[in-house]
Design the sequence.
């Protein structure tokens, strides 16, 4: 099992690491409000998108560089680690200066030039599983990163396309278990994308925890109904706080034997 | 929420009901050994197949009537409730005399003559979701039962066909959550078929529990490596016992708030 | 390659056999009108459902025995061969007296008691592929028939569940090609269920033909907009006639080298 | 219906356009041999990859710039139009100088920075459908191109991930029909990737033709067993020539009414 240490955070160890924050960074005030709140609830990493890969061209595409600067403010003011997505190999150098982790989205999991470019850096990289990716294909893709010498890969199950008529995607908890066996990388679960529904996120987070996820990536918003991106799946600050209490209790059972 | 009472067992109430036993009844000794053990561990229902729907004609097809008689012996000697699968409308009357619950397998979920026939009885019926069934199709199928006047339907998520390269099926925990909202029937999870792998069953069972399943259907065998059916996914008696201890602990957390 | 001879019709030979008719038999007049018309256009087999497996209990379930009698009338008045679906093993004996072929629907492809029961007869059996059935699973299912001594199996690709947002199913032409290699049975294509849309059926039928289907199963109705079942995918009598002209032309090219 | 004219080739008109060539350009000799042969057989466009997106990092990744120079030689010596894939937005300018069409591979169909970059050019762009892309998602992706002002989009169905146990992908002929209705762009079919098997490519090409494809993208190699990429699905020069004869015959039937 590889453990990725960054600051005083260890990913892949006994402690389950929670990364939380909005789908997209919308303003400094929004980001700071959310960051301070999730930090108080126990999140160790702030997530927030500056460059957003959106299905539709007409959807909000993120604040771009302005978003990165806000990320830096969050980092400075809270001391949280930060993670943000990179979609374009030309942005790697710029984003490198602002983030602790690169996030590769599911639509980019086979964007090989991008994987090579982040693979040349020394920062940890969370690669989300493609929505239709079999596990062997997924694991082959991350070899584009490790072949460049960067072994700090974090896997993330975020839901697949299957038979949904109710939720947005199908959270594949089997994949979390399988990836723990098939690879040595830490494995996160993303209950927000895995369900796409506020009323399911909490239970899905618990499912990820009890099957052995090393971390959780959870979307939280101070005002989900006004969110510029994926508001349906965002938890409120209060919901997230309550969820963290529950997750801590579950993690500390003998049955699970971990901390959060 | 409909609650199905049978003897002193309530399905769909606060208590999570565990049904356990072998894929197929192989002998009286095998069945009794397993039944007594899972009962001691906390199972309230004994599961065991007498008529087995097998992908291949050459696979063990179950003991048939002899299996039903063994089921009766188990019931008499242990006091456990029993559940067994019916595949053929011509067998409904016969199986009725031996079982407390009818089980409709995933391959039969749209076997409408069969659904109508069991719907005419007064016994509870667990209908497993088809491996490729969208939830609306699944819920439409059980209307063939309720239209006959039998409302004692129990749903069961047992894994879908998706992108597996490692597990046999993809356990769809989202479906458990969705079915709790879309219907009033109790919802079971089947971590044995949902994963198809001994090393995943326990964690999958926990996942079903924490997302809100009202019951679990778990395959247990006294000698999995010699099982005539699905030995790869059977827990040993000891593994099942340890799992029940863990499930009880998790169920009783404030985060879950149930008993087993 | 097995060839099934019945009357003067050879299935699995050079001639591509077309079975056409309504989803469900609705009345003697409807059935005769359609049968005479499709016969004139070149169909050799009349298809019509008397027992219909419908997703919803509230949908028209077929005329039952009355439908079988109409089928007999069609047979007598036109001389066409007839095919109709059997869903229930208890109906095999009764339907046997009226039909030339048994049809096993996709929802029943793993209804093993039913497969065994028709396998005991000496009539040809068309088994439709399950909507989510991998080819090896499909071919294993038909062994339940051949194990009973009936080798007169006809396979039929009728569309799978995949990524449709427009058509009802996804016609899998690769399956037609693969089944011709993996088995010795004649292989039909069902462009009606394979697309679910009147405007696609003709082109889909051509696709089945050019990839090597030995026969086509096509839904035709004298008044699709009033059909009691699957009117969206039914061709009108005139559309069917025009399609047959086109199919004959294509079949006779050197590129295809068959007749219809 | 939009028609894209380039030189004397019209894409989206009555004539079905065939693009043929190797998966990857391996050498000048290989490329010229294949190009001259497919041209003689009736192909109007030469396809050949210089930058190859390969599942595995250890697979041949293409000749890169050297491949582009070979492409230029092919163009000069044969007069054929050429198409080649672009994977990286940083390569758009370079590849622009060598190619007549940009090809966006299925793994890149939601590579939005790449789509925007090619959208800024004035060259036609073939965007292959993602292997798991529903049609509305696919059509939303190409809006990233048209929003930049480039309307010269060509769609291409190349097989989806479904239930294959025999072929590599599942050719979705319904998608070709649907895309002709849902959009105004020309639609190609790719029988090579759609099947992944030499013995199926020809029949699959015919299926694409008869359902209405405006063009075909076919992999051809002078020595498939030695190909550095996807040799299993490459036609030999002779197979391609024979196929073109058959396709021409089929296209000219009244039933199809097109030329090649």
Sequence:
């Amino acid at each position: 099992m590889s453990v990725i240490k960054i600051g005083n955070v260890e990913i892949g160890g006994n402690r389950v690491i929670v990364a939380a924050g909005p789908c997209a960074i919308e303003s400094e005030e929004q980001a700071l409000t959310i960051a301070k709140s999730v930090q108080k609830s126990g999140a160790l990493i702030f997530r927030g998108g500056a460059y957003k890969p959106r299905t539709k061209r007409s959807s909000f595409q993120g604040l771009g560089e302005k978003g990165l600067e806000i990320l830096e403010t969050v980092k400075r003011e809270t001391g949280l680690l930060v993670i943000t997505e990179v979609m374009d190999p030309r942005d790697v150098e710029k984003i490198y200066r602002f983030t602790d982790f690169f996030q590769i989205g599911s639509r980019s999991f086979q964007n090989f030039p991008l994987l090579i470019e982040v693979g040349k850096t020394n920062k940890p990289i969370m690669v989300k599983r493609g929505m239709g990716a079999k596990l062997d294909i997924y694991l082959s893709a991350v070899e584009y990163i490790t072949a460049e010498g960067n072994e700090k890969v974090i896997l993330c199950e975020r839901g697949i396309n299957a038979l949904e008529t109710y939720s947005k995607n199908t959270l594949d908890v089997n994949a979390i278990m399988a990836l723990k066996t098939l690879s040595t990388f830490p494995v996160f679960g993303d209950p927000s994308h895995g369900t796409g529904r506020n009323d399911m996120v909490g239970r899905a987070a618990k499912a990820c925890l009890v099957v052995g996820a090393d971390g959780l990536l959870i979307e939280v918003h101070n005002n989900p109904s006004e969110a510029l991106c994926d508001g349906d799946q965002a938890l409120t600050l209060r919901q997230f706080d309550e969820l963290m209490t529950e997750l801590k209790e579950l993690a500390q059972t003998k049955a699970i034997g971990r901390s959060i």
Q: What stands out?
A: The radius of gyration of chain C is 17 Å. The first helix of chain C runs from residue 28 to 41.
